Amino acid sequence: MKKRYSLILFFLTIGLIIYFQLFVIERSEYVAGEDRHYTLYERHFNNDPDYFGTSAFKNDKYNLEKIIDEIWVRDHKSEEVRKKLKFLYDKLKTNVYELNEYKLCIDTLEKYEKHLSQISTNLSVDQRNLLELKTYISENENQVRSRLQYSVKIDFYYNMSIGIDSLIGEYSGFTNKLSASVQELVFDIESEIDRRETERRLARQKEFEKSLKLRQKQSRSVQSYSIDNNQFKQSTREPRRSIDHYTNSFGESVQSPTHYNKRPKGATAICNDGTYSFSRNRRGTCSGHGGVKTWLR
């Protein structure tokens, strides 16, 4: 019985020694303005982060800081793209550009979109690395406090990376909308240019036809011509100029629009400049000849 009490007293004494060593006797930093020291027990009671720190976490045994640095780099790059987008948007809103300048803006926006997509891809890699590292630490780190510290920090930066990726999604959406607006503007400008060019071409064609009729009238007033029936038939079959051909999208050789005195065989449409088209597809028919005046089939 005395031996048992002796053992209990021995272990109690050892316990008290350890308690005083850890929580009372061992002291850390001096508390400014107070004539005493900050004990480990006070650190524990006040949830002082330094109290929970261990060698694995403090020395970053698992190189978590490398991944965190990469995430900050992604954040910095995405912010740079956002500033560039804002600058480009302000310029487009306050200035009027030439057609080539608008097309250059579209190319620039495409580069921004690719850059944002690459940043998002890199963030996905960072997120996967964080989760893999968290699993590895939980399985291999023996210090409970280190596991806790790593888990908290990994979760924080994982959520931070998700937030950055969400912002990148917003920047990408804005980039696409701005690019679509500029493309629509380019289309309107090109359509207006085509319309004006068509008007000028038709005006030149009318002027040419007017001049041609005048010369024909003057020519008939000078001399008359006698043409027999065979000559007349031949003149209605053959064009008034040499015949050109082009190759369509199906690899077929097709006669180019040509002037005739009478509808020739195989003609599919009459163009606005008076030529007959032999196109086998309605798309692009009479392009460069003022468009289609009349379809023949």
What's the average pLDDT?
79
Strand content: 5-15%
| Shape assignment | rod-shaped
CATH class identity of the largest domain: Mainly Alpha
What fold name stands as the CATH topology of the largest domain?
Methane Monooxygenase Hydroxylase, Chain G, domain 1
> What would you report as the Rg, rounded to the nearest angstrom?
43 Å
Beta strands, count: 7
CATH architecture of the largest domain: Up-down Bundle
Distance between the termini: 122 Å
Which stretches are low in confidence, meaning pLDDT under 50 for 5 or more residues running? 23-40, 235-240
| Quaternary structure | single chain
User: What is the count of helical runs?
Assistant: 8
Structural class: mainly alpha
Summarize the structure.
This protein has eight helices and seven strands; from the N terminus they run αββαααααααβββββ.
Describe the protein's topology:
Layout: H1 2-25, E1 27-30, E2 37-39, H2 40-45, H3 49-52, H4 55-58, H5 64-94, H6 99-140, H7 144-222, H8 229-237, E3 245-247, E4 253-255, E5 269-271, E6 276-277, E7 292-295
Structure description:
The strands form 3 sheets. The protein has a 3-stranded antiparallel sheet with strand order 6-5-7, with no helix packed on it. It folds into 3 domains: 16-52, no CATH class; 60-198, Methane Monooxygenase Hydroxylase, Chain G, domain 1 (Up-down Bundle); 244-295, no CATH class. 67% of the residues lie in helices and 7% in strands. The protein has helices spanning 2-25, 40-45, 49-52, 55-58, 64-94, 99-140, 144-222, 229-237; strands at residues 27-30, 37-39, 245-247, 253-255, 269-271, 276-277, 292-295. By secondary structure, the chain is mainly α. Helix 5 packs antiparallel against helix 6 and helix 5 (64-94) runs parallel beside helix 7.
